[in-house]
Design brief:
Oligomer: homodimer
Distance between the termini of chain A: 59 Å
Number of strands of chain A: 30
Number of helices of chain A: 15
Strand order of the largest sheet of chain A: 3-2-1-7-18
CATH class of the largest domain in chain A: Alpha Beta
Radius of gyration of chain A: 26 Å
CATH topology of the largest domain in chain A: FAD/NAD(P)-binding domain
Largest interface: A-B, 88 and 88 residues
CATH architecture of the largest domain in chain A: 3-Layer(bba) Sandwich
Strand content of chain A: 15-25%
Helix content of chain A: 25-40%
Largest sheet of chain A: 5 strands, parallel
């Protein structure tokens, strides 16, 4: 059996090595357009910043090492031009020699990934994407050659864009980041992103949201908001689109997202052509519909599983949750599943929970506050998504919630998870358990909450906002119109409350819950402000920016 | 309704505060024998070591703060002497005044915890357990008063014992730790504990295993192995036993473990008496049988849920997995579920997997090697337990596996978990995914392994051990009798292999797997040494110590 694999990085190389372990006799040929195989894409930004100083540590394998260990025929610098699905052949160009040849296959695996979507066209300012080792070499050369007060524009505030910003700042470059949407990290909701944007600004980054690049001419960038920048160079991180040229040449079916359509065994519309990685549609775990989820983990996993399928094993992909994480200086932001914005857009009923717990027991030094958001389906108590922003322990909690989602654990049942507790690592009631308690209170009606973006409407409808924090906290920053009545005095000062509807709030939501319970049991029409003053302030600030930009 | 709670720390106070949130009208009385309520038990060792310098940060609440916020009637320094279940009363002694009085209840919650099991009797050397704030004050005074070359003996190598050792070393004390069993941390298996013992020895700790304290006399401790120590003081951390005196006074049923027997709503054999925390039996998630699982998380959770039950809510406890973690200097050890030793003792069929992955992508600075062990039920692919020892990321992976167990995710399905990946946090194939791949290979027969403790028997039965590492690795340390044949040369040097059974091995098991696949497909009778040289060396060293001690 002869297997040809197009693309020699994450998905392609996982397929190739697994295939060899399953089948010593197969002929396995890997064509890679670039000069490198099996390199560490996700490490590329950190080589720019000098965090990974040794360029060779990004190059995990060579054609020689892969031949020795796995008897793979890996040919770098080979560009597969087209596929003849009927004849089961590919046409390959070797640009270095100018040769073109035809190679036959029994099974073909496309692992060509996605291409950077260029938001900036041909430009008089040096402009590079950040997808390959060559990109990194080029950006590194620009950084080295930059002037006395070097500056750069990063276009795109997604995960790669933020990593690019951090690493350019590390090299002493003044960076402006331009984001099309109203906030950075569009997979997260606006009130969650505030700490990330603050972190960047604290490092001197000029964060511009709700802007696009209009034109680049005469060494100047004109932004859609009228701003003019003169960066030494531009990093275009405005996203990726599936690479489908080859698939189209074979007449393969594309899906509704524009990615290559595959079944749960990564088989395309041609029975002898498989496809994996960023060029391929996945199945969204929440909607069951096609989605583009461009994660290295899925590319590797599907590469491996396609080898199993070709070797005759029963192997099916699980739907994708889209778990993702990024670290920007000292702040970590992570998500899994759907955001509130996605749920609203899809018209899916949902319940929102915000908390601000400590990363570990507060009595042990070094605990950091994180902000968590959980999205729950009211009818089923199913977890629809989560977002966490903070420092220590964000990665752990997003993984715990991702596994809970994979295991069908309900939001309320998060309370019962037995997570490892010592004071360095968590709390006797872990932040994830606490989310479960809040979810259970909402499910059973023991708590009723209002969201930060619903507060103004509630006030307009006559609700009184009662701040149950201390007088000192209230004085340090308060919601307009709120009256201050500390929770510990509430039972004795009921006479000061109005008869109409009440919204109680504290700093993060916990004292507010106690206050709401005190009042609800006495017959008051009371709700607690979810996430407290902290979530409200972050949300209002993000909205103000969005309105100002509009 | 009047609820009396005996014990004002984790379980008792969780019950009291939750009860108030559910019922503003209930009368809630908490009797606590000691002077403090709601203190941070798990932080106590770190106050001894000065990590938590401020003693007051361990005292999370006071009777006054609890009265203000929750209208609780908290009475410290009150010793509940007995229960009259028929009359629904408790008899209470207030030692400070000498008063004894009777208090009635509608519902009673026992949250009296466990008592330290004294391995050292009345002693001529100052001896303290480490359970209460008073213990910590006493040990702190001993440390302050110690001589020029202070020394201490810690009896018991469990979680609390190790935390005590670390914190005494921090204070400049020379510490000997005496452990009854053949290795420290008996919830883990011997080959996993080696790094923990090495870490302690590296900090100058005298680690003595398979010993008990025979006698303490004339300022000297005589150990069962003949050793004589003259410590300035002794910390007795030899474990706990459920506190059941009160329960017995009420005629409550005890379970087979000696703890108070309760149903899944924490109701004792008396319909108006509930019990939670370390004094109470839990249901083991794997056996369905009664077990003592003395974890702060469970005490808090069950305290809260018993309040729900009393308030008329449907609430049942989940069985306990016994997730636990400890940090000792720079090494972290964690476990969930059953150990191999427990499975062997219970005669339960099981499969064992050892891996030694990096905590995050190796190309990104700071990755640390961890050792993982997964125990799997062959018939069902269910996860029976896991152990992880390392540094960074141990807590995350044990939590991920604990949640997978709670969600009924099989061992093979760990491969499909979508865990958050950026190079600071993991790998595109996370260590937990890798465990799943190994489990799947074992399940499908794509891999066959032998355990470190089975190797000698295999060799005696005629198997040849083939070390497929490089010549340099082989020279640096090898299994006796192993021949060296690097995996990359294996296909070309098959003629050098004997006809009989073969055990291949590498450093951690991965190259060994590739080698085993190469040979198995050519018809060789081959197995791979699970966990490679690293697991074998740790296991053999632990066995040697055990044999030497026996």
């Amino acid at each position: 059996m002869k297997i040809v694999i197009v693309g020699g990085v994450a998905g392609g190389m996982s397929a190739a090595t697994r295939l060899r372990r399953l089948d010593e006799t197969a002929q396995i040929v890997v064509f890679e357009r670039g000069p490198y195989v099996s390199y560490a894409n996700c490490g590329l930004p950190y080589h720019v910043g000098g965090v990974i100083p040794d360029r060779s540590s990004l190059l995990l394998q060579t054609p020689q090492s892969l031949a020795a260990r796995f008897r793979l025929d890996v040919r770098t610098g080979h560009d597969v031009l087209s596929i003849d699905a009927a004849r089961r052949t590919v046409t390959v160009l070797h640009p270095a020699s100018g040769d073109t040849f035809v190679e036959g296959y029994d099974e073909l695996i496309l692992a060509v990934g996605a291409s950077a979507r260029a938001a900036v066209g041909h430009s008089s300012i040096p402009t590079h994407t950040l997808r390959t080792v060559e990109d990194v070499d080029a950006i590194g050369a620009l950084v080295d050659a930059a002037a006395d007060h070097p500056s750069a524009l990063v276009v795109g505030g997604g995960f790669i864009g933020l990593e690019a910003v951090e690493n350019l700042v590390r090299r002493g470059i003044h960076v402006t980041i331009a984001q099309r949407g109203p906030h950075l990290l569009s997979p997260l909701d606006p009130e969650m992103v505030a700490p990330v944007e603050a972190q960047l600004r604290g490092h001197g980054v000029d964060v511009r949201t709700s802007v696009t690049v209009d034109t680049v001419a005469d060494g100047a960038v004109l932004l859609s908001d009228g701003g003019v920048l003169r960066p030494d160079f531009i990093v275009d991180a405005s996203g990726v689109v599936p690479s489908v040229d080859l698939a189209c040449s074979a007449g393969l079916r594309l899906g509704p997202t524009g990615g290559i359509a595959v079944d749960e065994r990564n088989r395309t519309s041609d029975g002898h052509i498989f496809a994996v990685g960023d060029g391929v549609e996945k199945v969204d775990a929440l909607s069951g519909e096609a989605a583009l989820v461009t994660m290295a983990g899925l590319a590797n996993r599907h590469g491996r599983s396609v080898a199993d399928v070709i070797a005759g094993r029963e192997e099916r992909n699980a739907p994708a949750l889209g778990t993702a994480i990024v670290k920007v200086f000292d702040v970590v932001a992570a998500k899994v599943g759907w955001s509130e914005r996605q749920l609203v857009a899809a018209g899916r009923d949902h319940r929102v929970i915000h908390t601000h717990p400590a990363s570990h027991a507060t009595y042990y030094p070094g605990a950091q506050t994180m902000s968590m958001k959980l999205l729950v389906e009211p009818a089923t108590d199913a977890i629809l998504g989560a977002q966490i922003v903070g420092g220590e322990g964000v990665d752990k909690r997003i993984d715990v919630i991702a596994v809970a989602m994979a295991g069908g654990i309900t939001a309320s049942a998060l309370a019962r998870l037995e997570l490892a507790y010592a004071p360095q690592f968590g709390s006797a009631k872990d932040p994830v358990n606490q989310l479960g308690y809040v979810a259970d209170n909402l499910r059973t009606g023991a708590a009723r909450t209002v969201q930060w973006h619903e507060l103004a409407t509630a006030q307009e409808a006559g609700a009184t906002v009662v701040d149950v924090r201390t007088a000192a906290e209230h004085a340090a920053g308060a919601i307009p119109g709120a009256v201050n009545l500390p929770v510990d005095e509430l039972r004795d000062r009921l006479g000061e409350l109005p008869a109409g509807p009440i919204v109680v709030h504290c700093q993060v939501g916990q004292r507010g819950h106690t206050a709401a319970r005190i009042l609800a049991q006495r017959g008051y029409d009371v709700v607690n402000l979810d996430g407290g003053y902290r979530t409200w302030a972050a949300g209002v600030a993000s909205t103000a920016r969005e309105l100002a930009a509009a």
